[in-house]
Amino acid sequence: MQKPTAEALLAELRAIGHPEAVEKVRRFYKGPAADGEILGVGIGQIFPLAKRYTELPLNDIEQLLESPYYEVRMAAVSVMDFQARQNRCLPNGARPCSNSI
Q1: pLDDT tens per residue across all 101 residues of the chain
Q2: Is the dihedral of CA 57, 3, 43, 25 positive or negative?
Q3: Rg (CA), the chain
Q4: Which residues make Cβ contacts (< 8 Å) with residue 31, sequence separation at least 6?
Q5: Separation of first and last alpha carbons in the chain
Q6: pTM (2 decimals)?
Q7: DSSP string covering 38-91
Q8: DSSP 3-state assignment of 22?
Q9: DSSP 3-state assignment of 81?
Q10: What is the distance between the alpha carbons of residues 96 and 87, in angstroms, rounded to a whole number?
């Protein structure tokens, strides 16, 4: 994969979204959701996709977190989770969890 970007992750989410899955996904979303704010991507599809984007820069993650789409925000949070598990969550490459406590 080329350098990961917010646009690439969004394009992949849109490509795997299914309009017929919107109602199923909506059951798990507890916020105010107008039509069009859910792409129809299940969490089981979001996690593997997010795992491939662990090299996504922090500014791209911030951009995704501002998306009106539930699945895009969930993917951004999932990327951060995978980064934290790999100690990649600081933009300067520092390892925040090593040698602590």
Answers
A1: 688 999 999 999 999 999 888 888 877 776 665 555 889 999 999 999 999 999 999 999 999 999 989 899 999 999 999 998 887 655 555 555 444 43
A2: positive
A3: 14
A4: 70
A5: 36
A6: 0.79
A7: -----HHHHHHHHHTTTT--HHHHHHHHT-S-HHHHHHHHHHHHHHHHTT--ST
A8: helix
A9: helix
A10: 6
Contact (CB, 8 A) for 40 and 18: yes
Residues in the chain: 101
Work out the widest C-alpha separation in the chain, in whole angstroms.
48
CB atoms within 10 A of CB 72: 23
CA–CA separation, 48 vs 43, rounded Å? Answer: 9
**What separation in angstroms does the CA of 27 have from each of 23, 31, 40, 45, 57?**
7, 10, 11, 16, 31
